[in-house]
Amino acid sequence: MSFGLNKWLAKEQIVTPITLGVSVFFILLLFQPFGYNNYSYSRLLGDSFISSIVVLLITFTSRKVTYSVFRKRFVSQILYIQVLLDITLFLGVTFLINLISGGFRNIRFIDWLGVSFQDVLIFELFFIPLSLFIKHYFNLVNGDLNSSFNSSEDFNLSLGKVCLLSDTENDILEVFPQEILLIKSSGNYIEVFYLKEGKIFRNILRCTLEKVTKQFYLYPFLFRCHRSYLINTDRIEKVKGNKRGYTITVTGLQEAIPVSRSRIDLFHEVYSDKK
To answer: Which PANTHER family does UniProt cross-reference here (predicted)?
Structure first.
């Protein structure tokens, strides 16, 4: 897992709000919903521009907050938190705008709340699939563009699960990346240690660690520390050694996991960022 991934994630968090903001501008300008067809062209243009800027700033803020504060939660949980934060920020900002502009002289607060909540939900129904589409695009760009993707696997990924498939395609393990503790390579097999309902489970698949690592490019906390080990850096319990050599233990497991010499500097940067 390289730091190039973090750049892709940062770009995705910028591209998504910009795309949403621009989309809102053209939707309001071209389709004129919510009574916008009664506005003069100059007011329609101005309101569409202001609305697009508000959408851009709010969605950018909600994504920065959720990925920074709630990064240890499941991807599906982050999506729910993001939607709730979007709605809260939209209502808060529109309330302030309405209050400052004197809009409450012409409409009761309860009526404004009902209309605003309805409008925000309509746009959220548009934002969610568009956000997932953009995220999927960045998955493809950051991964192998020539790889074929199974549609059910893509669907699970959008919900937060990753589907680990054995080379024989007889064994499948669906797991939330955040629940993975350790993946250990043993020849042509991997051992996956993961949490489920507070208990540690172990699953063996006929598969290479190299192949599995490529599936986790979206999750920078899963770090390939050694040719035989991939660890969840959010689950690190103890680190021994120094820059010349580290051994790691993760939550619930006693095994001392080595960090290869070629990965020491990179691990040092990753681990230092989490202290």
So the answer is: STAGE 0 SPORULATION PROTEIN A HOMOLOG, TRANSCRIPTIONAL REGULATOR-RELATED
Question: Distance between the two ends of the chain, CA-based, in angstroms?
Answer: 19
Per-residue pLDDT of 51-70, as tens digits, reads 999 999 999 998 888 877 76
Burial 57-79 (b: 16+ CB within 10 A, else e): ebbbebbeebeeeeeebbbeebb
**Integer Cα distance of 168 and 207 in angstroms:** 9
Share of the chain above pLDDT 90, in %: 32
Query: Domain for residue 155, yes or no?
Result: no
Q: How many residues does the chain have?
A: 275
Name the domain count of the chain: 2
75-101 and 109-142 helices cross at what angle (nearest 10)? 140
Give 251's DSSP letter: T
Residue 131 lies in a domain: yes
Tell me the chain's radius of gyration from C-alpha atoms: 23
Tokens of 85: 């934060």
Same domain, 75 and 187: no
Q: What is the DSSP letter of 203?
A: E
SS3 assignment, position 244: coil
Higher local confidence (pLDDT), 79 or 142: 79
Crossing angle for the helix pair 4-31 and 41-69, nearest 10 degrees?
150
**Which CATH number characterizes residue 194's domain?**
2.40.50.1020
- Using the predicted structure, report yes or no on whether residue 119 has a pLDDT greater than 60: yes
Contact 189, 206 (CB under 8 A): yes
Kindly state whether residues 176 and 263 are assigned to the same domain.
Answer: yes
Same-domain pairing of 198 and 119: no
Report which of residues 146 and 42 the model is more confident about: 42
pLDDT of res. 143: 45
